[in-house]
Design a protein that fits this description.
CATH class of one domain: Mainly Alpha
CATH architecture of one domain: Orthogonal Bundle
Strand content: 5-15%
Number of strands: 3
Order of helices and strands: HHEEEHHHHHH
Shape: globular
Radius of gyration: 16 Å
Number of helices: 8
Helix content: 40-55%
């Protein structure tokens, strides 16, 4: 089977399910801890020629290899993104790329990455949680422990509006 369309609803539903299943009810969400609770090993790397995070399935076990950057929010996003690939069943549903062989087209790779991103934004910044707060963007970023870019994009998608008396920073 090949990925044909972005499964937005499934990605969001899987993220919300994990939050409920593991009794995570407020920010911040720690994707490393969640992965380990599920049985997925998380390892960190800082290899000059490998400036990205990735996940693999070997002998029925999953591993996430997270690139270490100077941005903690970005690193957390990367772990959650790779967790998304695993939880969304990308390894089981599709013939994904391997270290030795590219099996997906650019379009198919884009579809799977978008699904993992949608999963990640809902896992780290659930819409329901964000809408409970009347905080400035910087305060939300600190509370949810995400990058400036991630929070800005999420707030724009949600049309998050502060009361007129508060300014967005």
């Amino acid at each position: 089977m090949r990925p044909r369309t972005i499964r937005d609803d499934i990605a969001r539903a899987k993220a919300r399910y994990l939050l409920r299943e593991y009794n995570i009810s407020r920010p911040p969400v720690y994707p490393e801890d969640l992965a380990e609770r599920i049985g997925i090993q998380v390892r960190y790397h800082c290899v000059d020629d490998v400036g990205f995070s990735f996940s693999i399935k070997k002998n029925g076990e999953y591993f996430i290899f997270a690139d270490i950057s100077s941005n903690q929010g970005r690193d957390r996003w990367s772990v959650a993104h790779e967790l998304g690939h695993i939880v969304l069943g990308h390894y089981e549903l599709y013939h994904v790329d391997t270290i030795m062989c590219d099996r997906l087209t650019d379009r198919e790779r884009y579809i799977l990455d978008r699904e993992a991103d949608i999963f990640t934004e809902e896992l780290l910044m659930p819409a329901e949680w964000i809408m409970k707060y009347t905080l400035k963007e910087t305060e939300l970023r600190e509370l949810f422990k995400v990058s400036k870019e991630a929070m800005s994009i999420r707030l724009n998608k949600l049309n998050y509006q502060l009361p007129a008396s508060q300014a967005r920073s």
